[in-house]
Amino acid sequence: MSARVAIYARVSTINHGQDASLQTTEMRQFADARGWKLADEYVDHGVSGSTDSRPELNRLMGDAKRRRFDVVLVWKLDRFGRSLRHLVNALAEFESLGIAFVSLSDNLDLSTASGRLMFNIIGAMAEFERALIQERVKAGIRNARAKGKRIGRPRKLVDVLELDRLRKQGFGWKKIANELNLGVGTVMRIVKSRKPVESA
After folding, report:
1. CA–CA dist 76, 105 (Å, integer)
2. In angstroms, rounded to a whole number, what is the distance separating the alpha carbons of residues 52 and 54?
3. 193 has catalytic annotation
4. Are 77 and 106 in contact (CB under 8 A)?
5. Catalytic hit among 12, 83, 114, 199
6. This prediction's pTM
7. Residues 113-171: pLDDT tens digits?
């Protein structure tokens, strides 16, 4: 029984001569040469690579969970992954579903030993990228604090008299919070303390 293949293609713009058929034609020929049966084609037109929501990619991931194909074939990794982390997570999900992943231009086939090795390298790179970002954030916070900058939301003095006035008028906690531009929890803490406090 031949494997069922899903083809995914993406073009960023549709008014600058980009045509998804350049990708899909080559992938169809590759799939045919491998003896795979085309299950479906998923093509996102005019969608940026960094866009979180891609209708056809979302549909492909949904169909993957329904086991509607055995292989996902893409023309190039950057046509598929929104980021390194998204790519790693998607490939791990395919692996857990028993679905092979092939990137034609990158010569990446996760059904082979060399492909699985490449996946491990990609995963390590994603972890390294995440660690770098975390370290940059921490360094930025340390630098800001060293310069005397306060980290977090600015504090503001709460008008307790206005709060009491609103309570006497019979307003509920949510209405009072909205009027004073505070959170409900903050309002309740103020009432319990019965003295002016600062809101975080």
Report:
1. 5
2. 7
3. no
4. yes
5. 12
6. 0.58
7. 766 666 667 666 656 666 677 777 777 777 777 877 776 665 666 677 777 888 888 88
